[in-house]
Amino acid sequence: MLTIHLLLLAISAQTTVVAPETPDAHAPAMAKLFPQVEGWKIVDAPTQYTPDNLFEYIDGGADAHLQFDFENLATASYVNPRKVEVTVDIYRYRDAARAFGMYTQERPAGTTPLPVGIEGIAGPDYFEFVAGSYYVKLAQAGGKDDFHLRMFAEKIAAKLPGTREPPAVLKCFPNEGKRARAEKLTARNFLGHAFLHDAVAVPYLIDGKQFRLFAVEGRDESDVRNMVQRYCTVAKSPTNEPGKTGSVTLNDPLNGEVLLQWSGRRLWGAVDQPSQRRQALVQELGRNLQSSQR
After folding, report:
1. 109 and which of 182, 213, 257, 291 could share a cystine (Cβ 3.0–4.6 Å)?
2. How wide is the angle at C-alpha 227 spanned by C-alphas 251 and 95, nearest 5°?
3. How many domains does the chain have?
4. Helix (H, G, I), strand (E, B), or coil: what is residue 240?
């Protein structure tokens, strides 16, 4: 009996159970992301919000963040002897794509990018940037220029982990007629349909025609075929069960004529005003997407 007991102990000692690592397992505590800045003091300790109470801080705007799998917000205000106040809001999302997506929803089209994090934008009294899975907003009261905002942005960006590159899919969109820095990422309910998720839409203007090219990434091939099938049902377009690759033109009740193509885990196409160039650009987008998966 003693021999069996010792054998079981030895087997147990060699067996290690490793807990699955979450995508943000190594992210620093949110409060530690606020830098110490000479000549400035934090008015109060950082206040934190979760998906359950974000509405208490941005009533009416919380739903947009939740759509992008918002996880946590920490906010604090700094003040200097001249009574200039800088408020820092640091939002954290499930992953970098979600953070960049929320940023694109609020970024005005055509704005000049600033080299902080992945990129940033600024005005006289605000500075916003995205880095890794974080979206940071700074607002200033009492100052006459953006010097302090830039200083805070650079110090905070230096503390944030994660990528400094935008989603690679953006490089797949053709350049001809593309509106500069006007792309929008959507995590859910793309084009108003709950079954379309993880999409990028880029607006174009060619020969007076305005339209959007889009790309959707499915979880796997089955997910993409399911999206196509459900879209055909919504558009009342008779079709056989979609194969691994294919194309169809749909009459979307919400968006009009939609060109739809798919292959593997990718779904792409065009929406809004039809044009001769639109079809060619959809084909080019498809080639680029498929090349990027090899």
Report:
1. 182
2. 125
3. 2
4. coil
Q: Which of 90, 188, 184, 169 is nearest to 137 (CA)?
A: 90
Instruction: List, for residues 259-293, the tens digit of each pLDDT value.
Output: 999 999 999 999 999 998 999 999 999 999 999 87
Pair 66, 51: CB distance under 8 Å: yes
Q: Which two tokens stand for residue 48?
A: 């934190």
pTM greater than 0.90: no
Is the same domain home to 47 and 101? yes
C-beta of residue 157 within 8 angstroms of C-beta of residue 116: yes
Predicted confidence (pLDDT) per residue in 229-259, tens digit: 999 999 998 776 788 899 999 999 999 999 9
Note whether 179 and 272 are same-domain residues: yes
Q: What is the phi/psi pair of residue 186, to 5°?
A: -130, 125
CA distance 129 to 265: 30
> For 242, which DSSP code?
P
For the segment 151-199, what is each residue's pLDDT rounded down to a tens digit? Answer: 999 999 999 999 999 999 999 999 999 999 999 999 999 999 999 999 9
Write out pLDDT tens, residues 198-232. 999 999 999 999 999 999 999 999 999 999 999 99
**What phi, psi does 216 have (nearest 5°)?**
-120, 135
Q: Is the pLDDT of residue 25 over 60?
A: no
Separation between Cα atoms, residue 258 and residue 256, nearest integer Å: 6
Spatial separation of the C-alpha atoms in residues 78 and 60, rounded to whole Å: 25
CB atoms within 10 A of CB 173: 22
Per the listing, tokens 């001809």 go with: 176
Among the three residues 96, 126, 159, which one is the final residue of a domain in this structure? 159
